Structure formats: C-alpha cells, structure tokens
Amino acid sequence: MRRALLVVALAAALSGCGAQAAQGMHPVSDTPAxxxxxxxxxxxxVDVAPTRALAGRxxxxxxxxxxxxxxxxxxxxxxxxxxxxxxxxxxxxxVVHATAGTPLQLTSKMPGQLHHMDATIRVTx
Length: 125
Hints:
single chain, mainly beta, Immunoglobulin-like, five-stranded mixed β-sheet, 1 helix, 10 strands, 10% helix, disordered N terminus
C-alpha cells in the first residue's frame, strides 16, 4: 500500500515537469526490461550498486536517502540524461543507454551545495 501511494505521489509531482526534464524517467511501478543499478543520493555522496553494468539499456533505480532535495545528471561519452530533483525519501527510475567501455558518470549537485557528489559505473559487454 505504501509503495502504491509513493507511485501516485511521484506521478503527480512529475506531471508538471517539462518533457525534456523528465525524458527517460519512469514511475517506480514501470519496470523496463534490462539491467538495474541502485543509486542512493545523500548530502555527501552518490552510492551505486553494483558498480558495473552491462552495455545496452540500464535502469537506474534512484532513491533520495538524504534530508534535502537531490537531482541526478548522468553522462556517457557525448550523451547525457538528467532527472529533476527528488524530494527526501522518494524514488524514481531513469533509463539510460550504456556503451561498453564508456563509463556512466553520475553527478548530483543542488543549488547552495559547495561541492558535487560523483560516482562512476563501469560498462561491460
């Protein structure tokens, strides 16, 4: 029941986002096929598990485990994806397309933070 409420709340929050900002973002209940990587955002770090992903479609399951809003930007070579800021305690999915040998670079930085937090996911075949 709690998960259903989270999905409804997240869908309502995202309905006002611009199409470009939410591109590639899926509600928690929408589980695309492919490899999944868990991403945890806090005030001081970006945690990923596992730290390797298979080339192709990769679903990042992003959870804001911090006390403030956090965004996420993912860059791989010349391609990039982003998601709008997540409220504390919320979760969303971001689907990216990974190329073998080109790492996924994850960055989270919100206005007012003096530094940004980074993580890298190695991409293999």
